[in-house]
Amino acid sequence: MNINSFSPVVHTNSPNNAQNVKEITPSDAHNSFASALKNAIGSVNERQIASDEMTTKLATGQDVDLHDVMITAQKASVSMSLTLEVRNKAVEAYQEMMRMQV
């Protein structure tokens, strides 16, 4: 099977309930995955920055509640842990594919 000839089909519902068929090219799939990955990493980065800002505010004596700082730090920590686990699984899957014999 030639992977370049693979063309998934997406069904969308139109307002009149008739189904439209749109083919997704490999380029579209690549761009979609790349933008989803970029958005996810950007979200993790934003949470890390928010955590740093809250910690700095607490350390400099600004008006911020300790529980808000801790919640923000925990959200950033969980986001980073999830990102690392997803990365580890992706690397593991890639390594498994490289071990396959053709």
From TrEMBL:
Region: Disordered, residue numbers: 1-20
Pfam families from the UniProt entry: FliE
GO terms (BP aspect): bacterial-type flagellum-dependent cell motility
Keywords of this entry: Bacterial flagellum, Cell projection, Cilium, Flagellum
Domain of life: Bacteria
Main location: other
Cellular localization per UniProt: Bacterial flagellum basal body
Any GO CC annotation of this UniProt entry: bacterial-type flagellum basal body
GO molecular function: cytoskeletal motor activity; structural molecule activity
Record-stated family: Belongs to the FliE family.
Name of the featured protein: Flagellar hook-basal body complex protein FliE
